[in-house]
């Protein structure tokens, strides 16, 4: 009897395709991959169903056969196929694109700038504090009913308060009851440290899944999970798709981190995917952070997410003393204020260590003419070029374009040119000059040149062989060093000037996370926060540890301005190498979107903002224009967006990116 495979492909076509199953492929089943001829191309197809008859509208003689089966047994479960349908609907992509994202090829995790770090210390099992014990018992006792608050949990507390041990105890209980666990961390580089700790605690039942693995490595781990050889899955964003049989819980560590959001199609957020999976399976979702996202904080306030608070540090330390320095009152030619210099000197004299943090790579920020004010920007992107002293070149951190630094102003020919701001290379030069007796090291994506260099540098610092460690956001969280006394934040203002509604939240979170590195083991930790405007609320409240006030004020501002979590957003970005074409397409799209909203009686329920130039108006030689769709109801936005995207043919050479629940608007 003839059989027919219904398949989807990793193409932006929202439909399924039918291929005949050859007699030699009797084992063909939903969840397998097959190679097919699609037009003139050979492609990988994902089989979502097998039927005895073809679709009535499709003549049998026109149905091509599957070229070959790629898998001997299904890689995707029925749950994955349902999940891919939801992702396609929610994130405005196709089912084939969704399934492809679940098992991508072995490339770097998409949408993330390479970031590195090490997880907080994970000791062998020890006695729980009263707060930890209460959190564990409350989560395990709660009925995992998708319609109740019991299904969503948040372990909230300052750095060092023992959130990780709560996660591990819950995982231990799940394993004892035959359940599997997915444990998500925001960065690929964190997985090794976490997996080492989990392996030490639970043995060889741990699997690692992230897109930094080669395709064969990832497939091997995927099959270990399917066959129950591995019951705990640790990984970055894409590990949320792990095919864990009898899944008992999903744990999301550092829930606030933007790395959980994909910046390539499908633009899914691992937290939203985890919520969907947990509700489908009636299992608890457990999140945690010292700085929850604004969305999570509001849902905890409403009681939608159940909050479990850990208020005390467990390693004998105390919250560090945090001191702000107003840079407008210090020497403009130095990135180290007199106070920070004195504190570094004191730490060195005590044989203690210092971390200096700046969220900017390179030697200095940007080239500027002091006569006419000209700033040198990338020819392909609307961003300033950064000077790298080691290369003696100006480099764009978006597209990689480089040039030699000019000696005169390209605009007015003035010789009065220089560089404003400073980066990690600049700080390194100044620190080495100021403290020649100290052992100084730098960690950022420019300074790491070989595979194991990160681990070597962190090991040197942990073992006390390095006195001062400089770095960007890759050292902002997850680090735990017993000899660390001082943390210096060189410029706290860096992210506040970005034209993005989450700028204050990111700045507050970053300062809080960086400050959390100090005082972990001793009560004399210090944090020096340098800023040109230390009275700005995100900086002031982070330095005073006034977390409740920050979220209260930030959420009040969001509500007033009608931004998430009080409204929902979908962002449509139009990009093209031709400026006229991209504006014409965006303006035509705005007219069409208004028409679609009217046709569905949604005119008063949806707001269109734009088209307007993106804050980063040009990237990689592409002009960028955006339209924001805003509503109180996500389904309203999805209805209008879906009719637009799948019923509209973009002009030639114009590309449209759709982003549901964007985490940034740059």
How far apart are the termini? 55 Å
The percentage helix is: 25-40%
The neighbouring-strand order within the major sheet is 8-9-7-10-11-6-12
Gyration radius over CA: 26 Å
State the low-pLDDT regions, or none.
106-123
Oligomer: single chain
Structural class: alpha/beta
Compute the number of strand runs: 27
Number of helices: 16
Question: Mean pLDDT across all residues, rounded?
Answer: 86
Describe it for me?
Helices cover 29% and strands 23% of the residues. It has 16 helices and 27 strands. A seven-stranded parallel beta sheet has the order 8-9-7-10-11-6-12.
List keywords for this structure.
7-stranded parallel sheet; 29% helix; single chain
Short description, anyone?
29% of the residues lie in helices and 23% in strands. It has 666 residues and is of the alpha/beta class.
Tell me the layout of helices and strands.
Blueprint: E1 3-9, E2 17-21, E3 33-38, E4 41-51, E5 68-69, H1 78-90, H2 95-102, H3 130-141, E6 152-156, H4 163-176, E7 180-184, H5 190-202, E8 206-209, H6 215-226, E9 232-235, E10 247-253, H7 270-281, E11 285-289, H8 294-302, E12 306-309, E13 321-326, H9 338-349, E14 353-357, E15 366-369, E16 386-388, E17 393-395, E18 402-403, E19 417-420, H10 424-434, E20 440-443, H11 453-462, E21 468-471, E22 484-489, H12 503-515, E23 526-531, H13 537-544, H14 547-561, E24 568-576, H15 579-599, E25 607-619, E26 622-631, H16 634-645, E27 655-660
Helix pairs in contact: 1-2, 3-4, 12-13, 15-16
